[in-house]
Amino acid sequence: MTDLSCLLAGLINLLGPMLLLIFWHKKTGARILPAPVALAVCLPVFFVAGAIRAGFDRSDHLSFYLQQALLYGIFEEGAKFLVLRYLLTSYDDRRDAVTYAIGHGSFEAIGSGLACINLIGTGRAASDIFAVNLIGFFEGAAFCIGVTILIFYGIQMNKSKIMLPLAVFLHFLGNLSGALFITPVSMAIRLFLTAGICYAAYRCWKSMQTDY
């Protein structure tokens, strides 16, 4: 039964982003290109961030987690800003921000999916692996979409000096909660944080016009 849970958890993460992208495209007519661009951008971003993290001192756990959370907040949200602001200049519809977020989130989801698949047959998987990954996938997708909309709003409304640091800070908080607290506590914190981000993103979404 545990192996089946590992398989299902893996499939959620591996297939979830594609299914979410298809649903979003069919539902809204959003353009597809920002998603593969985001996925491609994530590879060098995570590689460089990982190389920098490898040089951090791990003897002080709190300091290490603080540095790691801030590092990935800066790199991930900074990369989103640079690509949406300077590369995908013709993709200026608010729906494109969601598409980009789905592609960005798929990078980590694929990694999580492969990790779950690799646990099959090892007997090392937690009994709640399916439930944790099911909740984690949807929460992670909502978190990434919400923060990306905030960045996109900053670009469109000329408020990036406020929205980009805010996005980095929110990403920092999300990463830090996952590192410092046990899973039930960190999930509760993340759900609360994501709910607030989604509300703010909804307000920003409503204030932006949409037109291809």
Q: Gist?
A:
It contains seven helices and no strands.
List strands and helices in order, with pairings.
Elements: H1 2-28, H2 34-53, H3 61-87, H4 94-118, H5 129-156, H6 160-180, H7 183-207
- State the total count of DSSP E strands: 0
Please tell me the total number of domains: 1
| Uncertain runs | none
First-last Cα distance: 48 Å
Number of separate helices: 7
Order of helices and strands: HHHHHHH
Overall mean pLDDT stands at 93
Radius of gyration: 17 Å
Shape: globular
Helix content: over 70%
Structural class: mainly alpha
**Sheet with the most strands?**
none
Percentage of residues in strands: under 5%
Q: How would you describe the overall organization of this protein?
A:
This is Protease PrsW. Keywords: Membrane, Transmembrane, Transmembrane helix. Pfam families: YhfC. InterPro entries: YhfC. This protein is an all-alpha fold. It is 82% helix and 0% strand. It has one domain (2-207). The longest helix is centred in the last third of the chain and has 28 residues, at 129-156. It is globular, with a radius of gyration of 17 Å. The termini are far apart. The model has no long low-confidence stretch (mean pLDDT 93).
